[in-house]
Amino acid sequence: MTYDAGKIDVAVIGAGHAGIEAALAAARLGCRTVIFTINLDAVGNCPCNPSIGGTAKGHLVREIDALGGEMGRTTDECFIQSRMLNRGKGPAVHSLRAQIDRREYSKIMKHKIELQPDLLLKQAEVVDVSRGEHGLWNLTTRMGAMYEAKAVIFATGTYLSGKIFVGEVSYESGPDGMFPAAFLSDSLKKLGIRLRRFKTGTPARVLRSSIDFSGLEVQHGDDPVIPFSYDTLTPGKNRADCYVSWTNERTKKIILDNLHRSQLFTGGITGIGPRYCPSIETKILRFSNKKRHQLFIEPCGLDTEEMYLQGMSTSLPEDVQLQFYRTIPGLEHVEIMRTAYAIEYDCADPLQLNATLEFKDFPGLYGAGQFNGSSGYEEAAAQGIVAGINAALKIQGREPMILDRAGSYIGTLVDDLITKGADEPYRMMTSRSEYRLVLRQDNADERLTPIGRKIGLISDDRWKRFQKKEEQKKEEFARVRRTVLPPSQELNDILVSHGTSAVTTGVRLEELIRRPQLNCGILAPVDEGRPDFPPAVFENVEIAIKYEGYIKRQKSQIDEMRKLENRRLPSDIDYLKLTGLRTEARERLQKVRPSSVGQASRIYGVSPADISVLLIWLGKEGKKHG
Amino acid sequence: MDRNINFAYHPSGDTIAAISTAQAPGAIGIVRISGPRARDVADRVFTSAHGKKLGDIRGYRALYGRVHDSKGDIDEAIALNFRAPASFTGEDVVELSCHGGVYVTRRLLKAVFEDGAVPAGPGEFTRRAFVNGKMGLTEAESVMQIIGAQGEQAAKTALAGHDGALEKRIKKIRVGLTGIAAHLSAWADYPDDDIPQVTPDGLRSSLSYAKKELESLLRQFDEGRVFREGVDTVIAGKPNVGKSTLMNLLAGCDRSIVTQYAGTTRDVVEDTVIFGGIPLRLADTAGVRDTDDPVESIGVKRAFRRIGTAQLVLAVFDNSHELGAADFELIEKLKNAACVAVINKCDLPEKIDKQYIKSKFKHIVSISASNGTGIHDLEAEITDILGTSDLDPSQGILFTERQRDEVRRALDCVNEALDALDSGMTFDAVTVSVESAISVLLELTGERATETVVDSVFHNFCVGK
Question: What pTM does this model have?
C-alpha cells in the first residue's frame, strides 16, 4: 500500500556528507526539500577516520565553505586537533586537516538541518524511484509514502546494497551497523542507470585504556589554529593528541599466514577497492620488501574512549585482527571495540553524468558522493553542494553552476569523474590539478565566493568581509610594490641572518619578498608602513609575489583551456557517424558525450587530431544553422 | 611555455609554417606561412631585390629577392603576398618559393621558425581554411578524413623509424621525470606516510640526467642532418661517361639535359633521391675536362669546387674506354673523398683498366646507367660509406622540426625546474615545471598526461590510510 505524501521540489536520498550539503544548498536557495536517511542517528556520520581535510581534501573543504557550504563551519565547531600539513613544501600543497569529535560533528549537522527552513529530515528508506508525470519523479519509501519531486539527488554512500566482510563472515549491511538500502539498486537498474560495485574498508576502533602510550611518538596540533571557514573569526583550541606506531615482521607474518581467511583473496569480495586506501594485507603484499608500516592512533572524540587505528584497515577475521594488532608497539594488550571490516556497495558509473551532476539521460536525477564513484567525506560534500545548487537552479529556471578545472578542485573532481570515469573509488590529490599553483587553499574565497554570492548562498555580512579582504589585498600589493627600504644595518642584519645577501642601495619591498629566504613577517621590523591587516592578507600578497612567474603562466594556460571549454558540443551528436574520427575516439565520445571540446580533449583515447575533426565539424554545423 | 601544451594545434593567434610542396625531388619548394605575423616573419627571412617589404605591398603581389638565415644566404626566392581574408587559410599568408630540394626548403623553414613561426600541426592549414570559411562542406568532409587518417598515423610514423628507437629514448627520459614527479606528489599528497625524503640533491641529479639526454637529442638533431636533409653528393667524371644518365636513373626523371655530345651539361643541377633511407642531394656536374669554351670552363671550375665540399662523390668512369688524362686528374682530386667509383656502361665491352681503379678506390661498382644494371650494388656501397658515420640513427634521433620544437620545450621546462631548485623555490613550483616537461614529452610520443603521475605514485609508494 502506498499513500500520497505530497509534492516537493528536491528529494535527497542519504544524509551523509554529500546529502547534507545538497539538501542545505537546495533549501537555502528556497526549494522545498526533503532529506531521507535510513537512521536519524547516522546523519553526518564519519564511519571511517575521525578527521576532516588533509591534502587536497582540505582544499575541497575551503572551497565548499567559499561557495557557502557547511562542512568547514561545522568542522571548526567540533575539531579537537588541527594541523596545517605540508608547511615548507610550498603554498600549492598547504592543506588543513582537523581531527574531529565525530559524535559532536553528527549532532551539530543534524541540528543545522533540523533548523533549516524549507528542509525536512526524515528517517525512511527510499525503495523506488520512477518516472512520474510532466517530467517529475516519484519516490516511494518502505512505509509506502509516495512523493512527487522535481529533482532527486542520490547520495547513498556505502548503503546502496551494502555488504560487509570480516574474514569468512559476510552479511548485508550499511556502514557502522546500519541497515543497507536493499531495494533501491533494482529500481535504478530498471530505470536504465548503469551500476557497478566498489569496495572500501575501515580499521578497528580500540579502547583507549588498553593502549600503552608511553613509547609512542606524539603528534600535537598547530598553534595558532587556522580555521577552515571564512566565517570562523575566533578559532577554537587543540584539545587532543594523536600517536604514531609501526608494524613489524611479526605483524607481517601473522597477516601473510592468514591471507586465506580474507575474502579479498578468496574471491568473496569482487568490488574494486581504492589503491590509495589499501588494507594492511594489500600493503604488505604489494610492498613486500617494506619492513614496517606506519599507523596513527587517533581519538574519535572527547567523551569517548574509542580510538581509530589509521592505516590498519583490513578484511581479515576478528581473531586475526586482534592477533596482529597486538604485535604492534603500544597495542600489546589492545581491546577491539568495533571490528575492522571491508564493505562492498553499488554506485553509478559517473560517465552518465554531466558537469551539474545531473544524469544526461534522466533529467532531474542527480548523483553525489560515493554514489558517483568517489571516496572520502570531503569529495562527497563537494559533489553534494554542486548537485544541490544545480538542482535548485534548474527548478528555478536559472543558469546552471558549472565549475571548471581551472577555477577549483571541486571543478577538477567533477570533471575527472564525468570525463575519465572512475575505475576505482576516486580520491582527490593535489597532483590531479594541473593548475595547482593557482588553486590554493588560501585563495578559495577569491575564486569561489563571488560565485556563491551570485547564486545566493553568501550572506551580506560574509560578502562585506570578503570585499574588505580583497580591498586590503589590493592595497597591500600596491604598497609593497612602491615601498623602497633604504639600506640600513638593521635591514642587512635581517637579510644576512636569513641567508640572503645584504643590500647597499635602497631596495623595493617587493624585491625582498620575492627572495625565497624571506617573507612579510621577517621583514616586518624594518617595514614601518606595514598596515594592521589580518595574516591571510600578507600571506596572499607574499604568494602572489613569490610565485608571480608561475602563476602568470598557469593563468595563460587557463585562458587557452577556457577557449576550448567555451566551444560547446550539442548533446545529440552521433559520434559513430562522424567522419574522420578514429574508431576508439568515436566510441569514447559516444559514451561520454562531452559538453565542450575542452572536455572532449580530456577523454582517454581522444587525440588532438580527433579534436581538430570536432572543431571542423562544429564550424560546419555553425554554417549550416547560421 | 606560454602556449597551451596539451594540444597539437595552435591557438589561432599563432603564426604557423610548413613546407607545402612534396618533400621529394621537384622544381620548386614552397614554405607557407600563415597567421597574424606571416608578413612580419617573412620579412625577417626574405629581402627583396628592390628593398621593398612584404608589409608594404598589396595582396596577390609578388617580390623577387633572396632568403637567408643567421648563417647567410639560402637561395633566390619569390615571395607571394596574400592578405586576409583573400588567402587559402583566410589569414595573412606569405608563400616563399625557392629552388626545390629538401635541403634548401628545410633550411628556410628552420629560419622561419627561428623568426617566430611555429610548426603547423597535421592538416592545420586546411583546418584554419575551414574555420575561416574558405572551404565548402564537401571539402570539409574530406579534410576531416585526412586529418583523421593523419592522427592515426602521426604518432606511429613519426617515431616508428628504427624499431621505435626514438620513442624508446624519449620514454626513458619521460619515465625518469615521471619518477621525480611521482615522488614529489607522494611526498606532498601523503605528508604523514612513510615516504623517502625528497632532497634537492636527489632532484638535481635526476633532472640533470633528463637535461643531458634532451640536450643530446637536440645536438644529434643537428648532427643528424645527413639523414634528414640529405648528403651533399657530387656525380663527377669526364664528359660523356654517363653522369647525367646516372643522375636521371637515380632521380627517375629528366632533370638535366642529356645528349650524346660531350659537354652538354653546362651547370650544376640539383636533385634529391632517397637511397637506403638516406636522402642524397645529387649534383650533376659539368663534365670534368679542360675546355676553352668560357661558359663551360665556369661549369668545370664549379664542379671541382663541389667535389672539394661534397660529403659523397660518385666518380663515374666509362667501361668502354681506356682511362684518360682527365680521369687520372679526377682520381687524384678524389684521394681523400668519401667516394664510390662507378664503372658505367658495363653492358659494353670492357676496355678500362679495372685493376688500376681497384688500386685507387675502396668502393667500386659496375653499372649500366642506361638499363639500370648494378643500381642495387651502388646503393649498398653508398649505404656502406655513410654507415661509417659516427651517428647511429638506430639509437633514435629526432626527425622533424616539430619533434625538435617539442624536445626544446621539454628542455626549457627541465631547465626551469633546475633554476627553481637552485634559487631555493619550494618544491611545488619545481613539480609544476617537471610536469610540464612530462606533458610535452607525452605529446611527442602521442600519449596523454592525465593519470601517468598518479598511477606512478600508487605503483611506487606505499601510501594511504
Answer: 0.79
- When CB atoms are compared, the residue of B188, B429, B450 closest to A420 is B450
Q: Are B61 and B78 in contact (CB under 8 A)?
A: no
Fold of A567-625: DNA polymerase; domain 1 (1.10.150)
> Is 80 exceeded by the pLDDT of residue A211?
yes
> What is the C-alpha separation between B248 and B235, in angstroms, rounded?
11
Quote the CA–CA distance of B329 and B158 in Å, as a whole number: 45
Q: A205-344 architecture in CATH?
A: Beta Barrel (2.40)
| Helix, coil or strand: residue A235 | coil
Q: Which residues 233-292 of chain A have a CB within 8 Å of chain B? A: 274-278, 283, 286-287, 290, 292
- My answer on whether B107 and B185 are in the same domain is no
Least confident of A99-103, A406-410, B182-186, B370-374: B370-374
Kindly state whether residues B239 and B367 are assigned to the same domain: yes
What residue numbers bound the domain in which B381 lies?
227-387
Q: With beta carbons under 8 A apart, name residues in chain A contacting B141.
A: 579-580
Q: How many CB pairs under 8 A join A and B?
A: 184
In this predicted structure, what is the pLDDT of residue B98?
Answer: 84
A85–chain B Cβ distance below 8 A for any pair? yes
Q: What is the pLDDT of residue B249?
A: 77
pLDDT at B122: 61
A626 at the B interface (CB within 8 A)?
no
E-strand spans in B125-277? 231-236, 269-275
* Residue B423's CATH number: 1.20.120.430
Whole-number average pLDDT of chain A: 94
Tell me how long chain B is: 465
> Is the pLDDT confidence value at A347 over 50?
yes
Give yes or no for B14 touching A (CB within 8 A). Answer: no
Q: How far apart are CA A282 and CA A199, in angstroms?
A: 13
pLDDT tens digit sequence for A457-470 = 999 999 999 999 99
In chain A, positions 557-616, which contact chain B (CB-CB < 8 Å)? 557, 560-561, 563-564, 578-582, 601-602, 604, 607-613, 615-616
Tell me the per-residue pLDDT of B70-119, one tens digit each, with 9 for 90 and over: 888 888 888 999 998 888 888 899 999 887 666 778 888 889 988 889 88
CA distance A605 to chain B (A): 8
User: Which residues on chain A are in Cβ contact (under 8 Å) with B454?
Assistant: 429, 431-432
Mean pLDDT within B212-239 = 78
My answer on whether B204 and B94 are in the same domain is: no
CA-based nearest distance A341→chain B, Å = 14
B137 and A296 within 8 Å at the Cβ level: the answer is no
Q: Which residue has the higher pLDDT, B464 or A393?
A: A393
Q: From the CA of B143, how many Å to the nearest CA of chain A?
A: 8
B374 close to B368: Cβ distance less than 8 angstroms:
yes
Q: Do B42 and B75 fall into the same domain?
A: yes
**Helix runs in B190-315, H state only:** 200-223, 225-229, 243-251, 294-309
In DSSP notation, A30-91 reads T--EEEEES-GGGTT--SS-SEEE-TTHHHHHHHHHHHT-SHHHHHHHHEEEEEEETTTS-G
Question: A488-498, pLDDT tens digit by residue?
Answer: 999 999 999 99
